[in-house]
């Protein structure tokens, strides 16, 4: 008979039906009870083996990690811990897993250990749950934006532009290293790579996205982006996925409204679709919290945190107001935040962001109107001459989850800013053309997808929420 997924078996298949299940053995107890998992849910189905009438050679091959196929009649279980089970009428081992060598055992492994075994960590409850939730969040992003009539625009991975102007790009070359053209002093001539043109992996699809928005009105990108920053933090990857909506005729407030609606929609979607997995991850986090000293423990469970985020408006304040709050806190609490106030104009450190979100407002914060010196050239200049219409969204436990802005649509102001910052106008002639022909107010933002998955799963390290994390010196699998 046809194979049935375990999730379907546990949630609706009537008992008395003969079914075939295929999956990987999670545990085998007393030569009799197999816990079988196929990734459709964290729950295992119990297979009951009639060991007295089974070939001992076959029994020996039922080990943790082995792939098996089982046929039998779905039956009400009398044992504890499960409602149904399958007494195996036929059992076939499809792929053995040598118990001496298979690294994943039916016990709790450390996340560090599993990171080193990232090729097999999918087979644990924790990572099964994380990657199902990640999948749901990706789908929900598309669903939300598609329902609003946004066009999914595929922007290039290989590009000649460095959208953020930060210079943290990975170079792309099709040259044989030994044959790379060099100048007189032996330096590589980067202008000659990519068939004679200097290119890099994209850091953001925004600039290309703006071209789309200036004709299709509302677009979004959703793809991998690359940053060559040598940062080894729990919040940074060298390759991460970003969602970048870009909307014509939007101002900064419209932009923030869309971002807040999007975040709430996808969180709600995951709560509805992956309730089991989020309950599991919530319990996992609660167990982890218990290891911490009392005063460092989080007061809220993961599920409560997600619900709280849905039930409350995000706080919206300007950078200048944030600086005032931080300054205030540094007066009150004496030493604690003294180091942080370098004065108006300085970029906020992650400690400052955490203070605002976790201690002061205790909810997501939309910070707007940053000093122009610490933000990108394309952000719209405000009338005060000092700030730009930027927007960062800060989340509890995460920090910056979204960065965005209203864009500078006035050609003269944009060119003037590029000159001030030394950004070559001739290289971005195509971008400036949008301001020459039918320019209009527009805005957009970038949502770091892994930071979203971090928040929703309650995990602590960004390397645990992407199947194959890329960070300095880690690219094997
Ligand atoms: O703030 P960023 O650099 O903004 C941009 O790239 C804009 N072009 C977006 C836009 O307006 N269309 O990055 C946006 C988000 C950050 O808020 C963060 O969530 C995430 O991308 N991000 C990273 N995530 C993981 N690892 C990194 N190294 C990241 N750098 C940024
Ligand atoms: Mg940013």
UniProtKB/TrEMBL annotation:
| Gene giving rise to this polypeptide | asnS
Q: Which GO terms describe its molecular function?
A: asparagine-tRNA ligase activity
- Record-linked NCBIfam families: asnS, PRK03932.1
What coarse category fits the chief subcellular location reported for this protein?
A: cytoplasm
How would you summarize the oligomeric state and partners of this protein? Homodimer.
Q: Does the keyword field hold Glycoprotein?
A: no
* Family that this chain belongs to: Belongs to the class-II aminoacyl-tRNA synthetase family.
Among PANTHER family, the record links this protein to: ASPARAGINE--TRNA LIGASE, MITOCHONDRIAL-RELATED, ASPARTYL/LYSYL-TRNA SYNTHETASE
Q: Which UniProt keywords apply?
A: Aminoacyl-tRNA synthetase, ATP-binding, Cytoplasm, Ligase, Nucleotide-binding, Protein biosynthesis
- Under Enzyme Commission nomenclature, its number is 6.1.1.22
Enzyme class label: ligase
| Start and end residues of each Aminoacyl-transfer RNA synthetases class-II family profile domain | 131-467
Q: Which residues cross the membrane?
A: none
Location within or outside the cell:
Cytoplasm
The name on file for this protein is Asparagine--tRNA ligase
Catalyses which reaction?
tRNA(Asn) + L-asparagine + ATP = L-asparaginyl-tRNA(Asn) + AMP + diphosphate + H(+)
């Amino acid at each position: 008979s046809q194979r049935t997924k375990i999730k379907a078996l546990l949630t609706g298949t009537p008992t008395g039906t003969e079914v075939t299940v295929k999956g990987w053995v999670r545990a085998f107890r007393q030569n009799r009870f197999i816990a079988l998992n196929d990734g459709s849910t964290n729950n295992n189905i119990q297979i009951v083996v009639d060991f007295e009438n089974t070939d001992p050679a076959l029994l020996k091959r039922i080990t943790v990690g082995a792939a098996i196929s089982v046929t039998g009649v779905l039956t009400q279980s009398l044992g504890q811990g499960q409602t149904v089970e399958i007494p195996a009428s036929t059992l076939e081992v499809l792929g053995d897993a040598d118990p001496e060598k298979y690294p994943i055992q039916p016990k709790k492994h450390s996340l560090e250990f599993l990171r080193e075994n990232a090729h097999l960590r999918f087979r644990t409850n924790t990572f099964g749950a994380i990657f199902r939730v990640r999948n749901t969040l990706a789908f929900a992003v598309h669903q939300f934006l598609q329902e609003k009539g946004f066009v999914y625009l595929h922007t290039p991975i290989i590009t000649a532009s460095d959208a953020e102007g930060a210079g943290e790009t990975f170079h792309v070359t099709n040259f044989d290293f030994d044959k790379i053209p060099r100048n007189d002093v032996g330096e590589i001539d980067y202008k000659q790579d990519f068939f004679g043109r200097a290119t890099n992996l994209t850091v953001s699809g925004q600039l290309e996205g703006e071209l789309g928005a200036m004709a299709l009105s509302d677009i979004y990108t959703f793809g991998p982006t690359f940053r060559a920053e040598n940062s080894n933090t729990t919040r940074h990857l060298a390759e991460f996925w970003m969602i970048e909506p870009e909307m014509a005729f939007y101002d900064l407030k419209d932009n923030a409204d869309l971002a807040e609606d999007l975040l709430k929609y996808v969180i709600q979607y995951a709560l509805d679709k992956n309730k089991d997995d989020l309950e599991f991850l919530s319990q996992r986090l609660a167990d982890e919290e218990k290891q911490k000293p009392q005063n460092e423990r989080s007061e809220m469970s993961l599920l409560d945190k997600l619900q709280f985020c849905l039930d409350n408006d995000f706080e919206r304040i300007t950078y200048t107001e944030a600086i005032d709050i931080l300054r205030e806190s540094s007066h009150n609490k004496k030493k604690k935040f003294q180091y942080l106030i370098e004065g108006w104009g300085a970029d906020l450190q992650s400690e400052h962001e955490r203070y605002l979100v976790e201690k002061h407002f205790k909810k997501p914060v939309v910070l707007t109107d940053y000093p122009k010196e610490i933000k990108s050239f394309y952000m719209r200049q405000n009338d005060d001459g000092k700030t730009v219409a930027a927007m960062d969204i800060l989340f509890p436990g995460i920090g910056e989850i979204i960065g965005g802005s209203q864009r500078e649509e006035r050609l003269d102001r944009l060119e003037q800013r590029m000159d001030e910052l030394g950004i070559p106008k001739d290289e971005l002639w195509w971008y400036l053309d949008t301001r020459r022909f039918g320019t209009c107010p527009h805005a957009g933002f970038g949502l770091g997808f892994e930071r979203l998955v971090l928040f929703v799963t309650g995990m602590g390290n960004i390397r645990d929420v992407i199947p194959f994390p890329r960070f300095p010196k880690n690219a094997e699998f």
